[in-house]
Amino acid sequence: MPWYVLITKPKQELKVAERLRDNGFEVCCPTRVEVRQWSDRKKKVTVPLLPSMVLINVAEKDRSQVFTVPGAVRYLFWLGEPAVVPEKEVQVLKDINSQKQQVISTEKIEVGQEIDLKAFGLTAKKGTVKYISGNQCWVVLQNLGYVIKLKIK
Fold it and tell me: Which keywords does this Swiss-Prot/TrEMBL entry list (predicted)?
Protein backbone atom coordinates (compact mmCIF):
# COMPACT_ATOMS: atom_id res chain seq x y z
CA MET A 1 0.00 0.00 0.00
CA PRO A 2 1.30 3.48 -0.80
CA TRP A 3 1.81 6.33 1.66
CA TYR A 4 -0.38 9.35 0.87
CA VAL A 5 -0.15 12.92 2.21
CA LEU A 6 -3.35 13.92 4.00
CA ILE A 7 -3.88 17.65 4.51
CA THR A 8 -5.45 18.57 7.87
CA LYS A 9 -6.94 21.67 9.38
CA PRO A 10 -4.27 23.89 10.98
CA LYS A 11 -3.09 22.72 14.42
CA GLN A 12 -5.08 19.45 14.05
CA GLU A 13 -2.29 17.13 12.85
CA LEU A 14 -1.75 15.22 16.10
CA LYS A 15 -5.48 14.83 16.80
CA VAL A 16 -6.18 13.60 13.26
CA ALA A 17 -3.29 11.13 13.45
CA GLU A 18 -4.54 9.77 16.79
CA ARG A 19 -8.11 9.42 15.50
CA LEU A 20 -6.90 7.65 12.34
CA ARG A 21 -4.83 5.22 14.45
CA ASP A 22 -7.91 4.53 16.58
CA ASN A 23 -9.77 3.67 13.36
CA GLY A 24 -7.09 1.14 12.40
CA PHE A 25 -5.05 3.14 9.86
CA GLU A 26 -1.23 3.16 9.75
CA VAL A 27 -0.20 6.80 10.23
CA CYS A 28 3.07 8.73 10.39
CA CYS A 29 3.01 12.15 12.04
CA PRO A 30 6.58 12.98 13.14
CA THR A 31 6.95 15.61 15.85
CA ARG A 32 9.61 17.71 17.51
CA VAL A 33 9.77 19.47 20.86
CA GLU A 34 10.37 23.19 20.91
CA VAL A 35 10.44 25.73 23.71
CA ARG A 36 7.80 28.44 23.46
CA GLN A 37 7.90 31.54 25.58
CA TRP A 38 4.95 33.45 26.94
CA SER A 39 5.14 36.63 28.97
CA ASP A 40 5.10 34.71 32.26
CA ARG A 41 6.70 31.34 31.46
CA LYS A 42 8.50 29.02 29.06
CA LYS A 43 7.05 25.68 28.08
CA LYS A 44 8.16 22.70 25.99
CA VAL A 45 5.58 22.06 23.27
CA THR A 46 5.33 19.09 20.90
CA VAL A 47 4.75 20.32 17.34
CA PRO A 48 4.45 18.38 14.07
CA LEU A 49 7.45 18.24 11.77
CA LEU A 50 5.18 18.59 8.70
CA PRO A 51 2.65 21.38 9.33
CA SER A 52 -0.96 20.55 8.35
CA MET A 53 0.12 17.13 7.02
CA VAL A 54 -0.24 13.53 8.11
CA LEU A 55 1.20 10.61 6.15
CA ILE A 56 -1.18 7.67 5.86
CA ASN A 57 -0.65 4.16 4.51
CA VAL A 58 -3.99 3.20 2.98
CA ALA A 59 -5.27 1.13 0.06
CA GLU A 60 -6.64 3.03 -2.95
CA LYS A 61 -10.17 1.71 -2.36
CA ASP A 62 -10.16 2.88 1.29
CA ARG A 63 -8.88 6.42 0.67
CA SER A 64 -12.27 8.10 1.16
CA GLN A 65 -12.77 6.54 4.63
CA VAL A 66 -10.30 8.96 6.21
CA PHE A 67 -12.74 11.84 5.77
CA THR A 68 -14.97 10.43 8.52
CA VAL A 69 -12.33 11.76 10.93
CA PRO A 70 -12.85 15.39 12.02
CA GLY A 71 -9.98 17.62 10.89
CA ALA A 72 -9.08 15.72 7.70
CA VAL A 73 -9.44 18.11 4.75
CA ARG A 74 -8.10 16.55 1.53
CA TYR A 75 -5.23 14.66 -0.04
CA LEU A 76 -2.23 16.45 -1.48
CA PHE A 77 -2.13 16.15 -5.28
CA TRP A 78 0.82 16.46 -7.65
CA LEU A 79 0.24 16.72 -11.44
CA GLY A 80 -3.38 15.60 -11.06
CA GLU A 81 -2.53 12.46 -9.08
CA PRO A 82 -2.50 11.90 -5.31
CA ALA A 83 1.01 12.58 -3.97
CA VAL A 84 2.72 9.33 -2.94
CA VAL A 85 5.64 9.33 -0.51
CA PRO A 86 8.28 6.59 -0.94
CA GLU A 87 8.60 4.09 1.90
CA LYS A 88 12.25 5.05 2.50
CA GLU A 89 11.33 8.72 3.15
CA VAL A 90 8.58 7.69 5.56
CA GLN A 91 11.12 5.48 7.32
CA VAL A 92 13.48 8.48 7.65
CA LEU A 93 10.72 10.49 9.29
CA LYS A 94 9.85 7.63 11.64
CA ASP A 95 13.52 7.21 12.57
CA ILE A 96 13.97 10.92 13.23
CA ASN A 97 10.87 10.87 15.41
CA SER A 98 11.77 7.82 17.48
CA GLN A 99 15.55 7.63 17.62
CA LYS A 100 17.91 9.07 20.17
CA GLN A 101 20.83 9.95 17.92
CA GLN A 102 24.29 8.85 18.99
CA VAL A 103 27.66 9.69 17.51
CA ILE A 104 28.74 6.90 15.17
CA SER A 105 31.46 8.73 13.27
CA THR A 106 32.77 12.23 12.70
CA GLU A 107 33.01 13.61 9.18
CA LYS A 108 33.13 17.06 7.67
CA ILE A 109 30.06 17.73 5.55
CA GLU A 110 29.54 20.44 2.97
CA VAL A 111 26.56 22.01 1.23
CA GLY A 112 25.45 20.00 -1.82
CA GLN A 113 27.16 16.85 -0.60
CA GLU A 114 25.19 13.60 -0.51
CA ILE A 115 25.55 12.08 2.92
CA ASP A 116 24.89 8.62 4.30
CA LEU A 117 22.05 9.08 6.80
CA LYS A 118 23.01 5.85 8.57
CA ALA A 119 25.76 7.94 10.20
CA PHE A 120 22.92 9.79 11.96
CA GLY A 121 21.33 6.53 13.12
CA LEU A 122 18.65 6.55 10.38
CA THR A 123 17.75 3.68 8.06
CA ALA A 124 17.53 5.79 4.88
CA LYS A 125 20.53 5.57 2.60
CA LYS A 126 21.24 9.08 1.30
CA GLY A 127 20.20 12.68 1.69
CA THR A 128 21.46 15.95 0.23
CA VAL A 129 22.82 18.63 2.57
CA LYS A 130 21.19 21.99 1.86
CA TYR A 131 22.65 24.17 4.62
CA ILE A 132 25.02 23.89 7.60
CA SER A 133 25.03 26.12 10.66
CA GLY A 134 27.07 25.39 13.77
CA ASN A 135 26.09 21.92 14.95
CA GLN A 136 23.01 21.60 12.70
CA CYS A 137 22.49 20.63 9.09
CA TRP A 138 19.45 20.66 6.84
CA VAL A 139 18.86 17.50 4.76
CA VAL A 140 16.56 17.55 1.71
CA LEU A 141 13.78 14.95 1.31
CA GLN A 142 13.18 15.39 -2.43
CA ASN A 143 9.80 13.74 -2.96
CA LEU A 144 8.13 15.43 0.01
CA GLY A 145 9.54 18.84 -0.84
CA TYR A 146 10.72 19.36 2.74
CA VAL A 147 14.01 19.92 4.48
CA ILE A 148 14.72 18.21 7.81
CA LYS A 149 17.08 19.82 10.32
CA LEU A 150 19.46 17.37 12.05
CA LYS A 151 21.73 18.00 15.00
CA ILE A 152 25.39 17.16 14.37
CA LYS A 153 27.06 16.01 17.56
Answer: Transcription
